[in-house]
Design brief:
The radius of gyration is 16 Å and the shape is elongated. It contains 2 helices and 8 strands; from the N terminus they run βαββββαβββ. The protein starts with 6 loop residues before the first strand and ends in a 7-residue tail after the last strand. It is an alpha/beta fold and 135 residues long. α1 runs antiparallel to α2.
């Protein structure tokens, strides 16, 4: 089985972002620094690779970008499903310190949907299946 895992880019605050996502999704970030791979200088304490596996079974990957490397646009990350309390909890956690671009509310297709940009600049969409759309 293959997995699809978002890989986020940060400009020096990857560790802080992954600690934040751990408070939202659960789990403990695993972090490798450039220094652990032998890098010296300004990159030494920056994150070369981080992963966060949630108790709900999904994984986020992330890293700090070395100087001169252009950021890869992250697009949007979508969270969806039928678990109302779980998804509303994710929404509330991600919205803390972020900017809601569309409130999480009932839409014409019957689901609760909203979008936001978290405090690290990562855009998220949350879609909670309405009663008629649940399996």
């Amino acid at each position: 089985m293959a997995k699809l895992n978002p890989y986020l880019n940060f400009d020096g605050n990857c560790r802080e972002a992954m600690d934040f996502y751990a408070t939202v999704f659960g789990g403990t970030p695993e972090v490798s620094t450039f220094g652990e791979m032998g890098e010296e200088g300004e990159l030494k304490d920056k994150v070369m690779h981080a992963s966060l596996e949630s108790p709900d079974g999904f994984t986020l990957f992330a890293s700090d970008l070395p100087p001169g490397m252009d950021a890869i646009p992250n697009g949007q990350i979508s969270l969806s499903g039928e678990e109302v309390d779980l998804l509303r909890g994710y929404w509330d956690g991600l919205a803390d310190g972020g900017t809601v671009t569309m409130p999480l509310e009932r839409q014409m297709w019957g689901d609760d949907y909203g979008s936001l940009v978290d405090k690290f600049g990562v855009p998220w969409m949350v879609n909670i299946a309405g009663e008629a759309n649940r399996s």
